[in-house]
């Protein structure tokens, strides 16, 4: 059975193309509305999708740092940032208060059981993706240390030309 | 055997062939996946009780490979534990396939066969999930159907067995779990009138039942089918938010060797979660209350490891602390027999450019959480109905399990410096969680300072100091860490944890650990060498003790 699956997969790999958003995931936004991930878009402009949690220090550092320059980024490129919280029942209640305390102008999605996270092959948070206007993932980064936002900004400017 | 394999192969080839070539002119499909691996090489270190196992090396590896084309997707996870890293729960051995599924969705109908994860409501009644760090995986193996028949109406049904262990492949438990969940979002349902209403209401209801006859004890007749049901409501009105959920579980007797009052009792379980929040820009209040009694919910009724075959999830009403001393020495986990718990959380931002706030403002957070044993009235009916005791909702006894009071202050000092200060005060009853060696109330104070200095665009240094003061258990601890990062690719860190207050003098040990990492896009490599302190990881009502170790750890994660 194992060999079979390996074989099947190697067949599949022949046909691989660029990664994009999954089409069988639906999660909720902070208002309780269902959001079909395949319909997530920014009207032909780039989009940043960042997986985070209220218990993840580097995640919050990253999103807070971007938040300081977010208005400029939006003016330059029209980008939209979607912050996907993977907090579960223990801490989902803390998401909205934290977002409001920090005054983030991002779209916030809740992924308490990791459906979107799994579909995006995210091992651990923070994991940030940059999508071009066609919804193709053009860059991603699995870490945050101070200064990493510069590289994201450069990549963003590159695809917005 | 070979013939059979050949036959299967040909079927598969023709199947995959069809997938490919029939639509060869369009998108051939997308492959994606991820790999993660942790390899540890152990040194013996008798001082910290770190053993050197015979095999000297532990390696846990995972690879997910997913295929997607149009409305169809399928995938597998290959897992390998050669040998499992020290401290991982039992039941993970060898290499093989631990997870495989196929999914098809169209026009609001979504069908998954094989393995899947899911959650109903807050997860109290059903949460099928995995955490590789903790060694939790209760994946279902069966069928899941989701259907969205009309706008705002969401239905789910599932049936399957749960993953129990891994031995060169997936081993499921014997119990069968069956569940139904429905949810109505009124604002989506009546979108012509309510789409822009300030009031938003969603209601939901769940029914989950399990069938198992694992336990054929001669002493009791145990129910083979056990049901659980409940409802939930989520409301918002402007800046206010409310969530409530109630779950009832029918009697589900299981062995409890520690306390005869809970051993094979024919008592129902009850769980209530309430959350009320107010939140506006710069200020929020969040209040939580929980009553939970006899809600341990598994697809078996024999004694298994704490993390095995769990159907429901018992959330802790407390902050999950991320700083080392606060996070893993005395982490609170809900008492699985039951508890009444409360939490209040206030966040405030002193505005930027105000007199008090200065140029960048201040972030202030205050959090209080407590948990008590429910007031139980024991009825001594062991020889008759064995209901054992009665409880009333939110009626708590004066026996404190846990209290956590903490204040966090965050301040951006200037363009280069960011400071975070935290003070925590814990009262922790070790009898509920069994973390320390002695059963007693532990009183601990912890102070933390975390300073990030951004030297230039790509260079930064982070300093972290922590201290814990306690007269109980292992006494005082100190912690220091320096981390240098060269963005976006490199970091090195060195940290020391020092148990200077240990009452046993030769146990006043330094745990020195060096770490280095390289990150390139989705690829991450880290190398750590030194001593790692024993710690406890708790989640969803279960805790796992990770023993101290000494050695080299290499880990890699990557996705494509």
Short description:
The complex is a heterodimer of chains A (161) and B (560). Chain A is of the alpha/beta class and 161 residues long.
Describe the overall structure.
The complex is a heterodimer of chains A (161) and B (560). In chain A, 37% of the residues lie in helices and 20% in strands. In chain A, helix 2 runs parallel beside helix 5. In chain A, strand 6 and strand 7 form a beta hairpin. The termini of chain A are far apart. By secondary structure, chain A is of the alpha/beta class. Chain A is globular. With 560 residues, chain B is mainly beta. Chain B has a 24-stranded mixed β-sheet that branches. Chain B has a two-stranded antiparallel ribbon with strand order 6-7. At the A-B interface, helix 1, helix 3, helix 4, strand 7 and helix 5 of A face helix 1, strand 1, strand 2, strand 4 and strand 16 of B.
Uncertain runs of chain A are 7-17
| Net shape of chain A | globular
Average pLDDT level of chain B: 90
User: What string gives the helices and strands of chain A in order?
Assistant: HEEEHEHEHEEH
Spans where pLDDT lies below 50 across 5 or more residues of chain B: 1-25
Walk across the major sheet of chain A and give the strand order. Answer: 2-1-5-4-3-6-7
What portion of residues of chain B belong to β-strands? over 45%
Which oligomeric state applies?
Answer: heterodimer
- Overall 3D form of chain B: globular
Major β-sheet profile of chain B: 24 strands, mixed
Query: Quick one: how many beta strands of chain A?
Result: 7
Fraction in beta strands of chain A: 15-25%
Q: In this structure, how is the largest beta sheet of chain A organized?
A: 7 strands, mixed
Helix count from the secondary structure assignment of chain A: 5
Rg of chain B, nearest Å: 26 Å
So how many helices of chain B?
5
Q: Bin the helical content of chain B.
A: under 10%
First-last Cα distance of chain B? 36 Å
């Amino acid at each position: 059975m194992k060999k079979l699956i390996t074989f099947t997969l190697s067949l599949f790999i022949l046909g691989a193309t660029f990664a994009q958003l999954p089409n069988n995931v639906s999660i909720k936004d902070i208002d309780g509305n269902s959001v079909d991930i395949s319909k997530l878009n920014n009207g032909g402009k780039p989009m940043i999708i960042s997986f985070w949690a209220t218990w993840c220090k580097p995640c919050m550092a990253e999103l807070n740092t971007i938040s300081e320059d977010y208005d400029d980024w939006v003016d330059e490129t029209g980008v939209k940032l979607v912050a996907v919280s993977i907090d579960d029942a223990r801490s989902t209640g803390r998401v909205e208060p934290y977002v409001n305390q920090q005054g983030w102008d991002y779209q916030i999605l809740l992924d308490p059981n990791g459906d979107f996270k799994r579909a995006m092959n995210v091992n651990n948070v923070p994991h940030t993706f940059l999508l071009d206007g066609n919804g193709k993932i053009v860059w991603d980064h699995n870490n945050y240390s101070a200064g990493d936002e510069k590289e994201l900004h450069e990549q963003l400017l590159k695809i917005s030309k | 055997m070979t013939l059979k394999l050949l036959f299967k192969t040909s079927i598969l080839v023709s199947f995959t062939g069809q997938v490919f070539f029939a639509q060869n002119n369009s998108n051939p499909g997308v492959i994606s996946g991820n790999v993660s691996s942790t390899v540890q090489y152990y040194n013996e270190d008798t001082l910290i009780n770190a053993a050197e196992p015979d095999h000297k090396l532990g390696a846990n590896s995972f690879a997910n490979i997913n295929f997607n084309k149009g409305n169809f997707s399928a995938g597998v996870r290959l897992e390998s534990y050669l040998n499992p890293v020290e401290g991982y729960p039992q039941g993970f051995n060898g290499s093989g396939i631990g997870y495989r599924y196929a999914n098809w969705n169209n026009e609001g109908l979504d069908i998954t066969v094989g393995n899947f994860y899911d959650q109903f409501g807050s997860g109290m009644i059903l949460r099928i999930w995995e955490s590789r760090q903790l060694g939790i995986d209760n994946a279902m193996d069966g069928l899941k159907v989701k259907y969205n028949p009309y706008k705002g109406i969401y239905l789910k049904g599932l049936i399957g067995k749960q993953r129990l262990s891994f031995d060169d492949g997936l081993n499921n438990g014997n119990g069968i779990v069956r569940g139904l969940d429905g949810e109505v979002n009124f604002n989506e349902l009546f979108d012509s009138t309510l789409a822009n209403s300030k009031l938003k209401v969603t209601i939901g209801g769940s029914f989950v039942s399990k069938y198992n006859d694992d336990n054929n004890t001669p002493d009791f007749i145990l129910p083979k089918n056990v049901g659980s049901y409940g409802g939930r409501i989520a409301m918002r009105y402007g800046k206010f938010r409310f969530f409530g959920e109630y779950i009832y579980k029918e009697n589900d007797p299981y062995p409890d060797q520690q306390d005869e009052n809970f051993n094979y009792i024919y008592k129902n379980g009850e769980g209530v979660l309430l959350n009320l929040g107010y939140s506006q820009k710069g200020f929020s209040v969040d209040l939580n209350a929980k009553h939970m009694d006899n809600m341990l919910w598994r697809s078996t009724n024999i004694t298994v490891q704490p993390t095995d075959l769990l159907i429901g999830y018992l959330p802790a009403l407390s902050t999950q602390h991320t700083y080392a001393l606060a996070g893993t020495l005395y982490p609170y986990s809900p008492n699985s027999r039951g508890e009444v718990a409360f939490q209040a959380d206030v966040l405030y931002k002193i505005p930027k450019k105000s007199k008090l706030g200065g140029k960048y403002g201040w972030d202030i957070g205050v959090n209080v959480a407590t948990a008590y044993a429910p007031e139980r009235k024991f009825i001594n009916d062991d020889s008759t109905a064995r209901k054992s005791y009665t409880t009333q909702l939110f009626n708590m006894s004066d026996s404190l399990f846990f209290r956590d009071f903490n204040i966090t202050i965050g301040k951006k000092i200037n363009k280069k410096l960011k400071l975070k200060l935290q003070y925590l005060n814990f009262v922790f009853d070790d009898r509920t969680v069994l973390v320390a060696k002695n059963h007693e109330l532990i009183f601990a104070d912890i102070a933390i300072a975390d300073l990030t200095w951004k030297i230039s665009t790509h260079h930064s240094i982070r300093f972290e100091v922590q201290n814990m003061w306690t007269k109980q258990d292992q006494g005082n601890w100190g912690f220091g860490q320096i981390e240098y990062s060269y963005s976006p690719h490199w970091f090195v860190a060195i940290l020391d944890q020092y148990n200077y207050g240990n009452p046993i003098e030769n146990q006043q040990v330094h745990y020195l650990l060096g770490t280095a990492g390289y990150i390139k896009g989705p690829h991450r490599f880290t190398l750590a060498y030194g001593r790692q302190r024993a710690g406890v990881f708790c989640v969803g009502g279960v805790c796992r003790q990770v023993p101290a170790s000494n050695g080299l750890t290499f880990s890699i994660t990557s996705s494509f």
